[in-house]
Every structure is written in C-alpha cells, then in structure tokens.
Amino acid sequence: MSLKYGGRTQPGTMVSTWLNSIVSGTAPFNGGYFCGGDPSGSGDQLNTIHKFAFPSDARTLLSAVLSVPRETLAGFADGGVAGYIAGGQRTYTSTWTIATVDKVSFIYETLSTLGTGLSAARNYVKGMANSGTAGYVGGGGSSSGTTTVDKFAFSNDSRSTLGTGMSVSRYGTSGMANSGTAGYFCGGYTSGWGRTDVVDKFAFSNDGRSTLSTGLTAGVGVPAAMANSGTAGYVCGGVTSSGVTTVDKFAFSDDSRTTLGTGLSTGRYGGAAMADSGTAGYVGGDGNHVTVIDKFAFSDDGRTTLSVGLAVGTAQLTAMGNSGTL
Asked: All domains of the chain, ordered by start, with CATH?
C-alpha cells in the first residue's frame, strides 16, 4: 500500500505507521518546529524541539531531541517529508562550532543525523529551501563571516557547495524562499559586528545569484525570516543598537519591499521564524530570552500573539515549518 503525502508517494511501512497514528489519535499533522537555542545566556544550550500544530497552534515537545545541544543554528524543510537542523555552536566545549546536520521525519517525528554535514563547522548560519528539491545553508562563522552556501539535495541528502556564494561575507543572516522559484538570504553581520541591509536572491533553476536593488529598511544582525510561498517573504526584527520591531515584506512577484504598519509585539533579535504557507507566519524567541510567539495572518498581515509560547525563553534558536506540499 502507498499514499501520496507532501506531494510524494510514501512507502507502505510509512503509510501504515501514519494510518495507525490517526486511529490512535496521535497523527503528526502539519506544524511548525522551534529547535535548540540558548535558554538563559549562561552558556547552556537546548536540544529540544517544540512543535506548534497547524492550524490549532497547540504546543507539544517532541520526544526526539537534537543530536547535539546548540544555538545559532539553521533550519529548513522539505514540506511533507522532513525538516533539517544544521550547524551552530555549543559553547564551553572542545568543538565550539558544529558541522552536524540532523533530520526530523515529519511523519514519524523521529530524528536521524546525516552522514555528511556542512562543508565546514559554522555557527550563526541560516537556511531556506526549495521544497521537494533542495535546502540551502548560508553564511556563518562569527567575527568574519563567510559567503559559503551549502546545498543539500532532498533526493539523497547529498551535499554540494555553490560556486557562487553570497555577495558579501556575513554571519547571522536570515533565509526565506519562494519554493520552486528562488530563495533569499537577508541582512546579517559583516566583519567586526557591522550590519548589512543586503538581500541576495538565488534562482532555484540554476542557483544563480543576484542582489536586490532594494535591501532591508536598515542593516540588522540576526533577523528572522519566513515566507508565504508564491506570494511574499517577511524579514522580522534584528538588532541595530537594540532589537527592532520592524517587519519588511518582499512581494515575490517583483521583489518590491514594503514595511508592515504593525511590526513585532516587542523589539527582538536572535529569534526564529517559520510559516504555514498560505495561512500564517510565526516569529518566536529573542536575545532577551522571551517565550512570546507572534503570529501574522497572511490574508491581511494582522498580528496576534499565541496564548501559549515557548516552554522556555530562548535566544538564537531556529525554526522550520511543514505546510505539506508547496
């Protein structure tokens, strides 16, 4: 027996597990995941994975945990199939920066670790994905940054590195994607904690890079980004001299930028964002270790705040969303 889920024919064993979970009332429906991060600023890191179910926004904590507790990590997703958590750092250890890439099955909600990680151990990385085809991890490496963009083919999880990386060496950027068309790396730190407003665009047809003539409204470090695939991407918060509430919106039809009249509920940086494409986007966490999650309805960009946020106030986490087929 097989079944189409996430735009793909799933094997019989997977379908059997999924159907049994429906009968028992524990089916892993679509949802968004907030992963890892720094819970206190004391040098400790989390290995936990929070899930917020779509559309109820109910929060659970997965029994599966990251293979290495870490912060400043990247997340990206192959809709309907799996999410990936890449790189980051674990402070006060002999291996400060991490090359590891973990993979979470969206049906089983179990975790495995890829045999091939990033091309180099890097922290302050961010990810985005062409769902059904490949995921990308860009930048990283605190103090100087890098232009490197690693690409993971979803067919076999093999890794390659783009011949043309980002236009400016940076770390603490953000990533979002118009699946099937192009992905964007936005903002971040340059050498010496400088901040950039640059938005690089990578065409998924050939991985060619261009740079938008209109960048962010201001250079920001560690913003968060999410996308309503086919419509628009959002770059949220980040730090200038302090955390900002700004949310820049980029229309995918022409890459024009507007700024939402209602921004984040508080100025924040070092948070993470994910989306239920077609419905809403979510921004959670902050350098000040808040639990708050802001939700933006894609129909009118109206903002609400979830009644239940993260279990622990967390900074420098990552997120990915499973909206099924994109």
From this structure: 31-322 (2.120.10.80)
